[in-house]
Structure formats: structure tokens, C-alpha cells
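[Meeting: bench + compute handoff]

Bench side (C.D.) handed over the final construct sequence. Compute side (W.E.) agreed to return the predicted structure before the next meeting so the bench team could plan truncations. Sequence as handed over:
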Amino acid sequence: MCGRFTVTAKDTKTVADRFQVELERSLERNKGGLERFNVAPTQEVLTVRSSPDPDEAAGGEREARMMRWGLVPRWAKDLKVGYRMINAKAENLGSSRAYAPLVGKFRHRCLIVADGFYEWMVAEDPKQPRRPWRFTVDGGEPFAFAGLCTRKQWADAEDRGFEDGWLYSCTIVTTTPNEVVAPVHDRMPAILPGPDAEAAWLRPDLSAEDAIAMCGPLPAARMQAAPANPKLNKVGKGIEGPELLVAPGG
């Protein structure tokens, strides 16, 4: 699974240029900017989708939107469903009640922007806490998880701060681990290998079968792993900041 990740870039222009999208409007509600060291489920994450117009989408037009991490399907009646849907197994995308209707439709495929993710290694001593590790790509460059997304009208959307009466939510596709991740965890997020793959993921003419085929493990040679701060074992107010990226004394 992927249950925590990072977006440490301070320069939003660099991210905007990297993903060919305008970020100013989507970040209006995110006063702190993009920089995050402990992104957790149910929080808002930066996503990039194709334009709703198929011709514009085919031409590469994109839009950015903050979405709740943890997909809430249209048939759901409770936000708690999202806690169980932060990840979507690539192997199940074609058969899942929640994901099969989404994966073949370009507006339901998205890029989820990140520059690292965490996984936890079980300690040899069962009495000891699990140890977090942070995984990066190409020395810490921004990348995109393959994501699925949807929207749903919500009765008390305004009270909850949802935009325009709609709840937008997303999930990260996961796959089998490569040689870097496997010693720590038996799953890893499906990371699209670069701009060409990201563009393909968003194209209107990509079939569900071809989309699923794209969700394999990133080549291990492009990834790095390092111990992270055990403070990550808890989620809460104040558990943020660059000190989380490395283990104490590291």
C-alpha cells in the first residue's frame, strides 16, 4: 500500500512547468502552498487531469485540482468509505465495483503529484515499532502516481468546505514492489515513469486494458530508499516539517 507521501517542493512554478498545468487557482484554498512532508489519507492532495473537452484533452490541455485522498464512490453514503479506498490494486482495477467504471474513462484517471513516499518495515523485535523508510525517484525529483478520481454531490458540502457542492476524491493505484521497495513492503505505488507516460495516462483514447498495463513497478535503478523519522508513526497536528524526511542522527 501507499499510506503516506511527500511533496516538498517550495517552488510551485517548477511543479507547474513539470506537469504542464496552471496551479494558481487550485492552490487558492491551500494557503500553505504545496510543501508537505507528511501527506496522509483524507487530506487534500494535488491532482492533474485532462481538460473535460475530449479535443482539448487529446491536445494535452490539463487542469489541476485539490482532491480528498481516499476515493468516495458515487454510491457511497458515508465519507468513511474513503478510509478503505486510499489505494487501488492494479490487479483488481478491471473487476472492482468501484474502480472498473473509472479506469477506462479519461476524466477519471489523474496524476497525483509527489516527490517521495513512505513505507514501514516491521522490526525484528515485535515489541519495537515499525520503522519508516522514504522512497524517492531520480534523486528526489517530482513524479506522478497513477491515480483514479471521481466526484460526488454532497448534502453538507459547504459546511465541510467541499468546492461548489461537490466532493472530489482520488485513490493511488498500487502494484507489486521492485527490488528497492520489496525488502520493506510487498506493495508499492504505481509511479508513471515520466512525462510521456503521464500524457498517455490522461489521453481520451487510452483503453482500460492499456491503462491497467501501465501500472507496473518503476524500474528499481531509478529509485532510492533511506530511513525516515519514526515520528511519522503518528498522524496529527504538528507532525510535519523536513525533519521527518530522515531518521534522527541520519
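W.E. noted at the follow-up: The longest strand covers residues 143-153. C.D. will use this when planning the next construct.
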